[in-house]
Amino acid sequence: MKSFFKLIKEESLIEKNDKILVGFSGGPDSVALGRLLLKIKDEYNLSLGLCHINHLLRGENSDGDEQFVKEFAEEFKIPFHILRKNIEEYGNFNNQGLEEAGRNVRYEYFAEISKKYGYNKIALAHNLDDNVETFMFRLMRGTGLHGLKGIPLRRENIIRPLLLSFKKDILNYLDSINQKYRIDESNNELVYSRNKIRLELIPYIEEKFNPKFKNNIVNLIDEISSVEKKEFESNSLKLSNIKKLSKKERENLIYNELKNYDVEVTRNKVEEIESLIFKDGYKEINIGKDYLFVKNYEKLFVKKKELEKVQKDKIQLDIPCKMSYNKYKISLSFTEKIEEKENCFYFDYSLIKEKLFVRTKLEGDKFMPKGMTDYKKLKKFFIDEKIDRELRDKIPLIFSGEDLILVGNLRRSNHYIPNKESQKILLLKIEEGI
Questions:
Q1: Contact yes or no for 353/398 (Cβ under 8 A)
Q2: Beta-carbon neighbour count of residue 49 at 10 Å?
Q3: Is the residue at 230 inside a domain?
Q4: What's the maximum distance between 2 C-alpha atoms anywhere in the chain?
Q5: Of 366, 432, 364, which Cα lies nearest the Cα of 399?
Q6: By three-state DSSP, how is residue 351 classified?
Q7: Can you list the residues of the chain whose pLDDT is less than 70?
Q8: Is residue 319, in this structure, part of any structural domain at all?
Q9: Is 155 exposed, middle or buried, given 0-12, 13-18 or 19+ CB atoms closer than 10 A?
Q10: Which domain holds residue 365?
Q11: pTM of the predicted model, to two decimals?
Q12: Which of 199, 287, 331, 383 keeps 20 to 30 A from 430, CA to CA?
């Protein structure tokens, strides 16, 4: 299973100290995934858990799958989580087919268990054959270019470490270690379109037309994904480029980017985002699932809603001192010489008559930027400097009494500038990214 080890390293799918919940049906794919993760468990210091959903569709066979999962977990001393859910009843109640209902229940349960027990990643066992089948299924059903990208390698906290492994290689691996697994007999029933694609259509094409058909589809999926990714990076992220596109091209790029985040995509939502492109300033739109589509002064991009608490306290500053404030590092000290260094600002301390303190912006704040003789509203300063709105609330402001003397590490005021006659020089240093 070289593809497994290659993939997790090249794509950094798995990192040291990860706590991984494995979607575990008991079938060959999930069993192989479980065994491979166990193989690297000590090297990566992993914490593993198995998650199984008994859909109650296959009577004794479903119960047999559940029992197998318990025995596997006990043998390898892995915590397990099992949900028994009548998918048929769930689907009827929610007006969903069996496949859609099963998928919704699985992902809801994965998310619930991950949150409850602190798993930071969910590993699913989709393989390369699944990707080819998905491509063929979507192609015949009718889809745009985005739909032909296939199954994503990762999406948020979901990873698929077997996505570059063919089914035959997975089965060979299990045989080589004498590992048993369960077979879902419904996978061989030709009443399902996906089963017909896997059992009839693809074998027919391989036999009659091209034995390397699946490899060719895999290459095509990679090419489509690569083209689409480059297209969005080069056009949609840079406003200067996207403005050159037609309205239809802009909407297609936005649509494709939204699809990457598993949010509901509607015509109105795409048009609303597209309308931002030629508007001034910073704009953002809630697109669902805790995501925002953002337009700043240069780019369009998607970001997760800010979950961390922004510090707004007014804190008095002593000298000397070192402190953290909204991921900025602030230090104050006295110095005898002035050096031109990044993030360093110097003040004639003998002219400062009031206590120093730090806080974030308030409505009406203003200051006199260095080199100017008039006051400027802080809001206007941020706009002129093209500072994203999301950052403005976090930037530490340094005051002497009511006088704003330093705006983060962006600009100092025109007050208290030291000269050769200054007896006591204050060095105020502010750095980002701590």
A1: no
A2: 20
A3: no
A4: 92
A5: 366
A6: helix
A7: 143-147, 149, 186-192, 225-237, 306-309, 433-434
A8: yes
A9: middle
A10: 315-432
A11: 0.54
A12: 383
